[in-house]
Amino acid sequence: MRTLLIAGNWKMNAGPTEAKELAESMVAAREGKDDSQDLLICPPFISIPAVAEAFSGSNFKVGAQNVSTEDNGAYTGEISTSMLKDAGCEYVIVGHSERREYYHEDDSLVAEKALKVLKDGLKVIVCVGEKLEERKSGNHEKVVKNQVEAVIKQVDKSNADNFVIAYEPVWAIGTGETATPEQAQEMHAFIRGLLSEVWGDDEAEKIRILYGGSMKPGNADELLSQKDVDGGLIGGASLKADSFSGIIDIAESI
Ligand code: PGA
């Protein structure tokens, strides 16, 4: 059985002051709960140190939402893996649909970032997912296959323990619209099949595949109960301690 990963993506919300308060309220919400699943929050870069400090001694880990492919030097506005490690990060999200859409990150850049993250000893969460028109035209599996293979064909299977995929149908992100549990399970099983073809069954069975897109306490149970859904990448509902904690309660009960 894979340990579930319940990950919050705060996107461009919560500067250091607000982030510290929110992180502290999350720790308070889990007090005395003895959580056994993996818990993660990915704040904006500038809030990472404040959140890492608030989480010290708790079960929560900290991650980043993006990273540079370079080590250091003249790359204005970029943040490197070594900076993230120094600030207390363990995970990095790459290829979020908002980065693909608004910052023109393509599959080859996403693969390059994933490789960099793994090479430098961090865990990576690679986001994939189809747009509404791609689902409507029946191309969703083809789109996701291309996105997944662009990365896994470059990464050695020895990285399986540090590799997480998040399936986030773009039409479900921030829209209140959620994939049905059947749609999620179908795509997650498809992704695991792709992993198995490239890395083999043993590695494919280890990889956590998260669902993302309007997950909240009211729908987390049916999504997280699916066989191949190994956690959530949660945007809106991770910005409130009670809703994020509610999802963790559900994960802990599965
Ligand atoms: P959402 O975002 O939960 O607000 O839909 C998920 C994500 O974009 O990671």
Protein architecture, described:
The chain is of the alpha/beta class and about 250 residues long. The chain has a single domain, classed as Aldolase class I (TIM Barrel, Alpha-Beta Barrel). It is about 45% helix and about 15% strand. It has 11 helices and 8 strands. It has helices spanning about 15-30, 50-55, 80-85, 95-100, 105-120, 130-135, 140-150, 180-200, 200-205, 215-225, 240-254, and strands spanning about 5-10, 40, 60-65, 90-95, 125-130, 165, 210, 230-235. It has an 8-stranded parallel barrel, surrounded by 6 helices. Helix 1 (about 15-30) links the parallel strand 1 (about 5-10) and strand 2 (about 40). Helix 1 (about 15-30) packs parallel to helix 2, helix 5 runs parallel beside helix 7 (about 140-150) and helix 10 (about 215-225) runs parallel beside helix 11. It is globular. Bound molecules: 2-phosphoglycolic acid. The site of 2-phosphoglycolic acid has 13 residues, from strand 8.
Biggest β-sheet: count, sense, barrel? 8 strands, parallel, barrel
From the coordinates shown, what is the CATH architecture?
Alpha-Beta Barrel
The CATH topology annotation reads as TIM Barrel
Count of separate structural domains: 1
Low-confidence stretches: none
**Helix-strand topology string:** EHEHEHEHHEHHEHHEHEH
Strand content: 15-25%
What is the distance, rounded to the nearest whole angstrom, between the alpha carbons of the first and last residues?
11 Å
Radius of gyration in whole Å, from Cα?
17 Å
Name the bound molecules.
2-phosphoglycolic acid
Query: Helix- and strand-based class?
Result: alpha/beta
Percent helix: 40-55%
